[in-house]
Design goal:
This protein is mostly beta strands and 791 residues long. The protein has 8 helices and 55 strands. A hairpin with a 5-residue loop joins strand 46 and strand 47.
């Protein structure tokens, strides 16, 4: 607190020093003159030329004219630069008897602040005639009055001054008196009546003369009063004041009816001629209204409030009259002592209520202070609070300029309440406070700011189009249009992402919408940028990153990869009857297009030809035997395996397995039940054809063998070796006969034939067939049997 007070005192001292310096350094004022009573809107001067300014500069810099008396008597045409009269000027009303009558005014311009001081001399015209206070004056003169005696008369008042004011007095021609004009130290002219010869009451007891007051105008004006002179019997002595002039000081704040002083006059005559009465002599209306005198005691009292700022002293003429009509004159000089009874006055002719932020030194207000007191009572100090970004600069005389100390920031403080305090140096000190409200207008200096630098939104797949998926929000610290934010989508980061068909944004509130249904399996996440721009000039903008995560929905059922279900023939799994418990029959392989728990698959045996014989592992889909196989167990089994995901609700798929129990892997392949059912229809017709074909082939074969044997017997002359088999030359290419697997045979067989040459009957022996390779479950098993000779 002490620091703030010290700063404020330093500011006040600096302000006072600058004010004194500037008051001594300002240039000489420009001077003009005008006759009083000149019509309003009359031309006085061309300020643009006299001030050395450019054309239009007065308008551009908001020039103003201010008069010292706070009355707008002058008018400035900013466009033409002419200084005009706003109204008729009455010199007597403005200046009274003061001469010369000068109206002080100031011309100040803004941006930058500049002051010019001016003076307008109001010239008097003869528009007032002299006026006596009374239309008739009574003067009593003793008959023993000697020639040359001077009798003061009441003066006339002329409001004009100079040569137009009262110049002389005259009296109507007579042989006993003439009038002389006496100049007073205050500049007033008094009439004195001078006696020219002795008086004789018995000859002429009364005179009626006309007293005339003339001014010096052209033509001159005049005023008259009837002077009635009464010749009285002898009264030897006139009253005389003990002191003259009386001098007294009176405080201007003295209450009404307070005594000023008491005057005293003595008359050495006795009786009625020695009785003295007091009165004001040649008193103006102002004096008559301000003071009164007791006729008996001579006490002067205050009858009107005094004002040092208007009248600083009074010169009061007093008169003491005895009972015989003789009078003595005196004077009282009353000086009004100034007291600090006027608080400082503050006038603001120029005020800027709104200042743009970030502006350099800016003039907020130009104001003038004045204290009507004098001395220390009229000396003032001007200050503002020290914690504000404003300073006071003294300019011309008692003018001050309130300017910004540094650029203002509306976002920090949007409004300032400035209290201007003006304090005088009197005792007690009086002060005046004036509050100014300054608004800081917004400038678009803040870009919109998003509440987050990045946003992560989540939307479940298979959403409905135009679904609201989230919002972004940006704030702007500016105001008005500078704070109105518009949202938009910026070009996508990935040009392959069709952003325009995926999302849209509400430009007013930043709400984001999905334009179409999203598919998690096709697009799991995507990113894009959103922009926020204000409506300032120029517009400012910012951007944020938005990442959209598509949440998986359980919209895909499990798909079985193995065994395939769309094959033309169902898959059959062969299981040897000697398989142990837990024997791996096959494995069901399935996938799910979803993710997470929606893709977690579990397997279970839904149906089985013989429950309890096979089992399915729940987590990997392996089909295994649950126990040892027995002879009583059926050879063919049909299993239905259910594959189910873990979604909500769960989706599932099923697969059918055919299992064939075999004794080892030597048995021919048996068709699955589905295959038998499919071939049952053409079986009857096909059997007929197979039987016919087999009979034909067999017959042809036997015939060929017989022919072959006969030919060999005929060509060989001797007996062949006993027990030796040979292949005869002939049409047969080799020693093997091939029988195709037609008819009911499920596979091809090859037979080796050999003849015995020592048998006349031509017997031939058959060997057991040589089995080909058998393909079972993608595993080649070569089955070979050694040939045994059969009869």
């Amino acid at each position: 607190m002490e620091t703030l007070e010290r700063i404020q005192q330093n500011r006040q001292v600096m302000t006072f020093i600058l004010m004194v310096f500037l008051s001594q350094a300002h240039p000489a004022p420009i001077r003009y003159s005008v006759l009083e009573e000149t019509e309003s809107v009359s031309f006085i001067a061309h300020l643009t030329k006299d001030l050395g300014l450019g054309i239009g500069e007065l308008a551009a810099r908001s020039a103003q004219v201010v008069c010292d008396d706070d009355k707008q008597r002058l008018l400035l045409d900013r466009q033409t630069g002419d200084l005009l009269l706003r109204e008729k000027l009455d010199r007597e009303d403005i200046c009274g008897p003061a001469e010369p009558c000068v109206l002080h005014f100031q011309v100040f311009l803004e941006t930058p602040v500049q002051f010019f001081e001016g003076e307008l001399l109001i010239q008097d015209i003869n528009d007032h005639s002299p006026v006596f206070p009374n239309r008739e004056m009574l003067l009593k003169i003793p008959e023993n009055s000697q020639p040359g005696t001077v009798f003061p008369l009441k003066l006339a008042q002329d409001l004009d001054v100079g040569s137009n004011g009262l110049q002389k007095y005259t009296i109507s021609p007579n042989s006993h008196f003439h009038v002389v004009t006496r100049n007073h130290s205050e500049g007033k002219k008094y009439p004195d009546l001078v006696q020219d010869k002795a008086l004789d009451r018995e000859e002429q007891p009364e005179f009626s003369l006309t007293l005339m007051a003339l001014d010096g105008g052209s033509p001159p004006r005049s005023g008259t009063s009837m002077l009635r002179i009464l010749i009285m019997d002898v009264n030897d002595n006139a009253p005389e004041f003990v002191h003259t002039p009386y001098e007294v000081q009176v405080l201007e704040n003295s209450p009404l009816d307070s005594p000023i002083l008491t005057v005293l006059a003595r008359d050495v005559d006795a009786g009625n001629f020695g009785t003295v009465s007091y009165g004001l002599f040649q008193a103006s209306e102002e004096i008559k209204q301000t003071f009164s005198i007791n006729e008996v005691t001579g006490e002067i009292r205050l009858t009107k409030k005094l004002d040092f700022e208007q009248i600083k002293s009074y010169h009061v003429e007093i008169e003491a009259t005895d009972g015989g009509g003789l009078s003595g004159k005196g004077s009282v000089v009353i000086e009004v002592v100034d007291v600090n009874d006027n608080a400082p006055e503050l006038t603001i002719p120029s005020l800027t209520c709104s200042i743009p932020e970030n502006a350099p030194e800016t003039v907020v207000s130009i104001f003038r202070i004045r204290d009507r007191d004098s001395g220390d009572n009229g000396r003032t100090v001007c200050s503002i609070p020290g914690n504000l970004p404003f300073i006071l600069k003294p300019t011309l005389k008692n003018f001050y300029t309130l300017v910004t100390e540094r650029p203002l920031d509306r976002e920090s403080t949007a409004e300032y309440n400035i209290t201007i305090t003006v304090t005088d140096m009197g005792t007690p000190r009086l002060k005046t406070e004036h509050n100014i409200t300054v608004l800081v207008s917004d400038v678009n200096d803040n870009a919109p700011a998003f509440t987050q630098t990045s946003y992560t939104l989540s939307v479940r797949e298979n959403n409905s189009p135009a679904l609201h998926i989230g919002s972004v929000r940006a704030t702007d610290r500016d105001a008005g249009a500078n704070a109105q934010v518009t949202y938009s989508l910026l070009p996508p980061l990935d040009p392959h992402v069709p952003l325009a068909s995926l999302v849209s944004i509400n430009p007013d509130n930043g709400h984001l919408f999905a334009l179409r249904s999203l598919d998690y399996e096709a697009l799991r996440a995507f990113e894009f940028r959103v922009g926020a721009a204000d409506r300032g000039s120029p517009a400012l903008s910012s951007q944020a990153l938005v990442r959209v995560l598509v949440a998986d929905d359980n919209d895909n059922a499990p798909f079985v990869l193995y065994p395939l279900q769309n094959a033309s023939a169902p898959c059959t799994e062969l299981v040897p009857r000697a398989a142990e418990a837990g024997y791996l029959v096959t494995k069901v392989v399935a996938v799910d297009g979803d993710s997470g728990q929606n893709a977690w698959l579990s397997y279970q045996l839904l149906k089985a030809t013989e429950p309890g014989l096979f089992g399915v592992w729940a987590h990997n889909g392996e089909v295994r035997t649950a126990r040892l196989l027995g002879e009583r167990d059926a050879a063919k089994h049909r299993l239905v395996v259910l594959v189910k995901d873990n979604g909500e609700p769960p989706l599932s798929a099923s697969v059918t397995l055919h299992v064939l129990l075999v004794d080892g892997f030597s048995q021919p392949y048996l068709p699955a039940p589905e295959a038998e059912a499919a071939g049952a229809a053409p079986a009857a017709a096909l059997t007929v054809y197979l039987v016919v074909a087999l009979a034909s082939v067999s017959s042809l074969f036997l015939f060929s063998v017989l022919v072959f044997v006969a030919v060999r017997l005929c060509r060989r002359g001797g007996a062949a070796s006993v027990g030796r088999c040979s292949v005869p030359e002939g049409p047969f290419p080799g020693h093997l006969l091939d029988v195709s697997g037609t008819g009911t045979l499920s596979q091809s067989y090859q037979y080796e034939v050999c003849l015995t040459g020592d048998h006349e009957t031509g017997e031939f022996k058959f060997l057991k067939p040589v089995f080909p390779k058998l393909l079972v479950q993608n595993t080649e098993i070569e089955i070979k049997r050694k040939p045994q000779l059969q009869e």
